[in-house]
Amino acid sequence: MAYQLKNEHLIIDIAEPGDYQRTRFDWSGFITGTTLIQGNHTFCVPESLIPMQGTGGIGICNEFGLAKAIGYDEVGVGEQFPKLGVGLLTRTSDTAYEFNRDYPLDSFEISVEHSGPQSITFTVLPKDCRGYAVSLVKTISVENNRLIVDYCLHNTGTKGIHTHEYAHNFFGIDGRKVGPDYVLKFPFALRPWNDDKETMEGLSFHKGEVRWSGEPEEEFYFCLDGFEGQAYPWMWELLHEPSHTGIRELSKFSVSSVAVWGKGHVVSPEIFIELKLNPGDKKNWSRVYEFFTR
After folding, report:
1. Which of 8, 285, 16 has its CA nearest to residue 154?
2. Is there a contact between 177 and 265 (Cβ–Cβ < 8 Å)?
């Protein structure tokens, strides 16, 4: 059973934990659809338009430990390590951790409290793994034309936690192809970088704007350095100019890094937060999205 939040401005569709069964993205609060009622504009698209391709992402889905999984380097083949929001995964080889492959899974238990048409809370219950144990509470709510995702991470184990979290925002406005009609804005001058310069071909960067010269034929990708989110009124804005419709993220936290990925049908601005929790520590943060049409 899927869940839905609704007010006079937004309709938000959220998957039941376990509908997504891969081992990359957090199973709790997996947002598969966002609709702005004014104009009936939609924003969420799948990672790939080809069935069974990719890692199953869609809409607003977050991930912990993209580059380095907690405890992975401490275990041998056949032993478990935790993937926050997902479960205990089993290491299957001597090679480095790969975020885009599936590992044998012992999933976490997730409880759901749907408290009304405008709010829902997912609680991922801790399960000890050699001293690593974490509780995750995620509350999703709508307020006017804003979608709010509140996180609370509690280290209930005996070992410290050091990881990163980000939301892989798979956005395509009204299903329109990426190209010159789109602009991605940041509230500061851009210094994009990537070791593979080919991933930035077809993109132009001017002050705080990213534009496309045509519909991308290949995946594009670039990175930006971190910044203090409190210093700006918003973090990024994706606008489809002909329809005057867009999304902006209004989150307020210290950003460790930024990545932008996409291809012909999708643009994914990814804002990373660094998380360090000693045993017993709690960390709260929020992601706020504003959907608009002019």
Report:
1. 285
2. yes
Q: Is the pLDDT of residue 33 over 90?
A: yes
Cα distance between residue 155 and residue 277, in whole Å: 6
- C-alpha angle with apex 218: 214 to 224, nearest 5 degrees? 85
The amino acid at 190: L
User: Which residues have C-beta within 8 Å of that of residue 227, sequence separation ≥ 6?
Assistant: 188, 255, 258
Global pTM value: 0.96
DSSP code at position 15 = P
Please report the DSSP string for 1-48 in residue order: --EEEE-SSEEEEEPPTTSS-SSSS-STT-EEEEEETTTTEE-B-BS-
Longest dimension (CA), the chain: 55
Can you list the domains of the chain with their CATH numbers? 3-293 (2.70.98.10)
Q: What is the pLDDT of residue 115?
A: 83
